[in-house]
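Deliverable D5.2: sample structural annotation.
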Amino acid sequence: TRGAASEEIADTKVTNGKTVTLSGTTIGTAENPVTTPVKAQDALTLQAYDEIPTHIYLKLSNPNNRQKVVVWTEGKNWRTYHGFFDSSKIIMSGKGSCQQIEKGHRLLTEKVNDVKSIVVMDADFKRLEGHNMSADPNIFYTDGHDVEMMMIKQDKVQNGICRTFEYDGDNGLFFEEVFEDLLYLSYFKWFDCHHKRCYAYASMGKVNQNLSQLQDLAWIENKLYPESKAKWESSNHKTSFVRINPDDVGDFIAAHRTIDKYEMTNGHDYYNRLCMHIKNKTNYVRNEECLNDTVIALFDYEQFKNTNLYQSLKAWCNNNVDILAKA
């Protein structure tokens, strides 16, 4: 079973010159950072870094917390991970993009002596792009594209979904159909990442388009182009937005046929599309958030121990501090 929830995941920060209040006590401004209200020899100075949540400074300022390990996770991913760690040995920060938490981790280790800090982040397309996943021994990546795909890859999770929603068909085919629906969109996103074109994807919404549209690279590009161009121009880039040629994506697909679908497929896309299949085949109506709650409940500690992420964290613990929960 999972351990108790780790410490509060509130991210109050010193930023934009505004006074920050935590539990009714004013602690400073961005222009005038002050020390936290603890003994002088133990205090850490609050710095005006948006990337470092103030609650981390406050907790590390307490002498009782100085031996704890800071664990950075993306967005709401802490909801998956918190029970897998010993809450008495960590301070978890669960907010921000992969770039933000990585920067926060680096700033913290540069500015605070003797602090132990690790990052658990989504792999995205890094493995497919040949990224050195072990370049930093304190940064760990999900199996698959992201935490959503890492969880749903487990047979127990897939079987649990079928039981929960009373699906009595072929389990393997049920989940494989979702990958097939998203194949061209997933390749398009990888091509976009590979060539750094910076397309925006909000206009795809819940990915509930009909299959003929999702299998048409030209349709996908035309759907995404207006929003992507507008977002690029609003960011005051000095260069014009460069459109993706669908034929180039087709060539890219032909050159990368043998790919792990769990590495390439975005978990949010997958869960949204799976919700549509669940509705069509079982009459259960769920949105992505509800489905994610179900998957998190099914992805218990035993499932976590099946992952490469767990093995990497376990190796780190053996050489540093054992912060993992006990099964």
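Annotation notes: Residues 70 and 117 are 5 Å apart (CA to CA). Residues 4-49 have pLDDT under 50 and may be disordered.
The annotation will be released with the project's public dataset once the embargo ends.
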